[in-house]
Amino acid sequence: GPVPETLQVDALVVGAGVGGIYSTYNLSRAGFNVQCIDMAGDIGGTWYWNTYPGAMSDTETYLYRYSWDKEDLRTYPWSKHYVYQPEILEYLRHIVKKHDLRKYMRFSTEMDSASWDENTGSWTISCTNGLVIKARYLINCLGLLSKPNYPDIPGISSFAGKIIHTAKWDNTVELEGKKVGIIGNGSTGVQVMTAIAPKVRHLISFQRHPQYSVPSGQGLIPQGYREKINQNYDRIWQDVWSSSTAFGVPESTRKTMEATPEERRQAFQQVWDQGNGFRFMFSAFGDITTNLEANEEACNFIRSKIDEIVKDPKKAKALKPCDLYARRPLCDSGYYQIFNHDNVDIVDLRETPIDKIVPDGIKTKDGEVYKLDVLIFATGFDAIEGNYLRIKITGRDGETIKKHWENGSTAYGAVACNGFPNMFIVSGPQGAFANFPVVIESEIDFITECIQHAQNKKADHIMEVSRESEQQWSDLCDQLVEGSLFKTTASWIFGANVEGRKLSTKFYFGGLNRYREWVQKEINSGFPGFISS
Ligand code: NA7
């Protein structure tokens, strides 16, 4: 056959989403010869794939931007408190164009394997389209929430209608006037249901665990709002960098149970009215996610709202969670309200589990068959390491990343693993649990420092973390999550949503501010976590 094309570069960035774009920008500006590849047909990552109706970032628009283009922050237009997927993708395309980054990128180019070559001190990357790339530095921006998770329900292939996963949305699927079933009511399910309820003939949510959701506060921005943000941008970013969750919401230290019942109700009502899930969880009180009694107060408040909003007591009962409020906080623009319409139903899978999928629709264990034209899976992602385990990544001495992570995925300072020299990871395991774009920027800034150190200060140009430091970081992550109610609540945050996956601490719960302080110390003290040579 034809001789495969081989490229030789300083740095290969894999992925052209929010992380890949910034990595490409940063490393090219630092003078490296950079190549960026993505399996998708264009830039965008998450925002390339997730085109389902209602897809939206629930970070306020003024923060769902890169912080480093200060001129752009003040001038690029946006219209709403939260931006929907098409506008986010437009923004990312604009940034790529403005900074002329497309020339570094190749699309429809999927990394198939990557292996460390001891002799040349570089990585050899093979792509499914035959391209081979040799790179001294490998920067993986494969995405945290990108490998779709499919439910293991018998009979899926027998379904006569259309099945569609939200993360692989197909815009040609007709929903108007159709009988639509949906499995999954997390962030994604809530968004898609709220968006399609008015259009479809019948919508049935097959719900396993109800979740707590609060209003997002979506809406057009009032006059003068943008000007005020623009005037205060520098301070706003300072506040974000020095906060724990980086969502631009105040982080309260007030204890829930020290307030009187009336003060509590008022405090919850205030954040409910303002909107945003992270605000509800972190701005009214400081101990919702650490104190059981406090958590229960927040739960009761939201449950009382569900009772107020949802007229049909049977639907309200199905929608009210009994678990702790300790998953990623959800927000919506009228989710509970859709259940007041006759065309929207809910099947409580805790009472009547799914038996199987049949050609006509879904059959539950009580023998009922729900007839469907379209079945939507909003069943989430094989999060964090999912995309890494799919690719054959081989480090020193033939060790694969799959083997390295068999007891749980770890990464020193969220960016590097022992045995995988000069390989860096963006939004992989054990990064700060905070607003992702801000976390991504912080990690890439750290990675850029690491690479510059290898390039300029080390004779062999090799940066590799030691086994001990990787273990210490992992221990630190374990310690930091102690006492958090997140730990006792099953979700993708610990890998509980993927069958057979070993549970482990996949986030650094110390806050973004402490993560950044740690990074600065690591840099200032000459990268002590890395093996010196
Ligand atoms: P999530 O938050 O992982 O939610 C997945 C949903 O799918 C959740 O409601 C699950 O129910 C449900 N699910 C998954 N498998 C099944 C089966 N087999 N049967 C019934 N229900 C099932 O994914 P999202 O896409 O909503 O959000 C992920 C992140 O992306 C989000 O946090 C944002 O940061 C962006 P369960 O609760 O497990 O019973």
Question: Can you put this structure into words, describing what you see?
Answer:
Helix content is 32%, strand content 17%. Strand 8 (179-183), helix 5 and strand 9 (202-207) form a beta-alpha-beta unit. With 533 residues, the protein is α/β, with parallel strands linked by helices. Strands 1, 2, 3, 4, 5, 6, 17 and 18 form an eight-stranded mixed sheet that branches. Strands 7-16-8-9-12 form a five-stranded parallel sheet. The protein has 16 helices and 20 strands. The model has no long low-confidence stretch (mean pLDDT 96). Helix 1 (18-29) packs parallel to helix 14 (436-457). The protein has helices spanning 18-29, 46-49, 70-75, 85-98, 187-196, 225-241, 261-274, 277-282, 292-309, 313-319, 335-338, 386-389, 401-404, 436-457, 467-481, 512-524; strands at 6-14, 34-37, 105-106, 111-117, 122-127, 132-140, 162-165, 179-183, 202-207, 213-215, 330-332, 344-348, 354-358, 361-364, 369-371, 374-377, 392-394, 423-425, 431-432, 507-508. The protein binds ligand NA7. Residues 145, 151, 153, 183-189, 208-209, 328, 349, 378-381, 492, 497 line the site of ligand NA7.
